[in-house]
Amino acid sequence: MDTSQLKRHSKFLSLVLRHKPEVLSLQLDPQGWISVDTLLQAMQQNGRHLQRNDLETIVAENNKQRFMFSEDGQMIRARQGHSIKVDLGYETAVPPQTLYHGTATRFVDSIWKQGLIKGNRHHVHLSADLATARQVGGRHGKPYIFTVRSEEMAQAGFAFFVTGNGVWLVEHVPTDYLVGE
Ligand code: HQG
Asked: Is residue 140 in contact with ligand 1, taking CB distance under 6 Å?
């Protein structure tokens, strides 16, 4: 299967595993998992012919490691980014002194009023490196980077989680902990 086909399937998997499993008449378990066989079968019935080895390629090569298999390889889920209710079971983690959040310039005024809010997602997404933040912000327009004083937030009692692929998650970032460009 060529790269563009894999990318198309990968985007569809994000839709199914994070937002709308119902497009394939599927239901994820409370932790966001679905059986690989069930998923592949449902995709097949939807005219999306994907073999197990193609799925393995997508999981392994996805640029942001968006998906993961269970240890026994029988189940698959998205690592983060859900809008449907799932309990990802991430442990809280101690963040570094600062983390970054990339946004677009048009959101900046609103962010200075409300802080960073999670919107449709379960959490606000932060990254440990500037390059990732810039890329995330660039998806929305002209990128603008906020630095988040994460160590101070953790000391003040905010819970931080980190996913297997280095995305940091937090409920909300009040303006007190934001530093602009
Ligand atoms: C902005 C992608 C106005 C926020 C990425 C962002 C990431 C506010 C947008 C992951 C606001 C939400 C998440 C406020 C936050 N007023 N705008 N008070 N607070 N915003 O896509 O962080 O490709 O839901 O700055 O790489 O851009 O899905 O969040 O611009 O890791 O794997 O509201 O999604 O990963 O946009 O991206 P999003 P995000 P995936």
From this structure: yes
As a whole number of angstroms, the distance between CA 134 and CA 44 comes to: 37
The answer to whether residues 146 and 110 touch, using CB atoms and an 8 Å cutoff, is no
Q: How many CB atoms lie within 10 A of CB 65?
A: 16
Whether 119 lines ligand 1, by a CB cut-off of 6 Å, is yes
Q: Is 62 in the pocket of ligand 1 (CB under 6 A)?
A: no
- 46-76 per-position pLDDT tens digit: 999 999 999 999 999 988 889 999 999 999 9
For ligand 1, whether the C-beta of 171 sits within 6 Å is no
Residue 115's Cβ-count burial label (10 Å; 0-12, 13-18, 19+) is: middle
What's the pTM value of the predicted model, to 2 decimals?
A: 0.87
